Amino acid sequence: MCHCVLPSPDAVSARTVICYATNWPQYRPGQGKFRMSDVDPSKCTIMVFAFAKVVGNTLDNYEENDVGPNGQYMQFTNLKRQHPQVKTLLGVGGWNHGGDPFSAMAATARGRAEFIRSTIDYLRRYKFDGLDLDWEYPKANDKQNLVSLLQELRQAFDAERAQGRPPLLLLMAVAAGLQNAVPAYDVPALNRYVK
C-alpha cells in the first residue's frame, strides 16, 4: 500500500507524517500486546486507525471493543488530548478487506449517498477528523465509481464545513505496484478530491 495521493498543503502542515495504528496488537501475547491508549502519536501529524469495514452501504467496526465508552476508537481519538496538533482519521478497507464491498456500494449513486451520509455520522460520533479510504485493488470497471465516490465525499465534507463544522480530511491509500495501480486508479482525478 502506498499513500500516493496526499492531502493538499493547505489541509495539513508542510511536513506530513502519516502513521497507522492497527486494532489487532491487543491480541498479541506478552510484551507485544498493546491497546490504542498505548500508542505514542508525538512523531505523527496524521494518525490513521486501521481499520473499519464496509458492510452494505455503511461503515462498521471490525472488533467489538472498537466501539463503546472506553473502546479502541475513543482511546485513539483521545490521544489528541496530549497531542492536539494530531489529526485522527478512520481507515476503511485495507488489504484483508477485499474490494467487493466497495464495488457493490460504489456501483450506484444511491449506494454512495447512503455510505457518505452514514460515514459522516460515524466519523462525528466517534470524534474522528476524517476518513482514509483504503480501497485496495479496485477492478478496472470500478475506476469511474471510485472517482465518483471521492468527488461526492469531498462535496459532502465541504458542505459540512460551509455550515461551520470542523473540516473532515479525506485521504486515500492506493496499491503501489504499477500493474495494479494503472488499470485501477485515475490518479489525476483522485488528486482533485483528497485533502
From TrEMBL:
The protein's name: Chitinase-3
Gene Ontology BP annotations: carbohydrate metabolic process; chitin catabolic process
Record keywords: Glycosidase, Hydrolase
Keyword Nuclease listed: no
A GO cellular component annotation in the UniProt record: extracellular region
Domain GH18: 15-195
InterPro entries registered for this protein in UniProt: Chitinase_II/V-like_cat, GH, Glyco_hydro18_cat, Glyco_hydro_18_chit_AS, Glycosyl_Hydrlase_18
Molecular function in Gene Ontology: chitin binding; chitinase activity
Family affiliation: Belongs to the glycosyl hydrolase 18 family.
